Task: structure prediction
Amino acid sequence: MPKAEISNRIRRLRFDHGEMTQEELANRVGCTRQTIIAVEAGKYVPSLSLAFQIAKVFRAPVEDVFQYEE
Amino acid sequence: MTPLQKRAWLGLGVGVGMSLAILAVFIARGVTSFDDDLVLRAIAYVLCVGGLLVYGVTLRIKRRQPGRSEVLIDERDKEIVRKATMAQLWAVLLSLFIWAIALTEVYWGQKSIPIIYAYLIAISGLIVNILAQAIGILIGYRRTR
Result:
């Protein structure tokens, strides 16, 4: 099975949503700021539930926030 | 630093502290005097029970602070703990096997093992457990930082 990478546009989307801070996003989706930092940096792949919650905050489909790359 | 990371550093401190304490006690009083030395036995009991209590207290982390929206523990922390638990399990199993093989080889001729080793195995199991969990958590954070 080829190794897949999950990239994301969270940093861009935060900027587009009134320069939302990582802490604010973390509080809105119910995780720690450190987890948002790790997800943004591509060091941690969030669960489906967290991915959908993040997408919901940005009012965007989940595939607009996270991209699957083989 | 997340509360779990703080706990891991505390665990590391407690583990190292307990190791040094037990070493100091047995170096000062001698391992072979355990059968006759009531003070040494009392210290061994205190280290066992006290260590377990400290470990139990460090395991308690609240998900949220009362009255605050800030989350203290989330799915990434739980994933890191899950992986650290596997490291913990293997480390404790490995330590038990090392004790079993070492004691069997050393005391094979006597066909009996001094009773002190029951306490040393218990205390070392606790220390290995605390250290492996702490190190596992810290490595987990380092990898997903």
User: Anything to note?
Assistant: Chain B touches chain A through 13 residues (CB under 8 Å). Helices of chain B lie at 3-29, 38-58, 75-107, 116-143. The mean pLDDT of chain B is 83. Residues 3-143 of chain B form one domain.
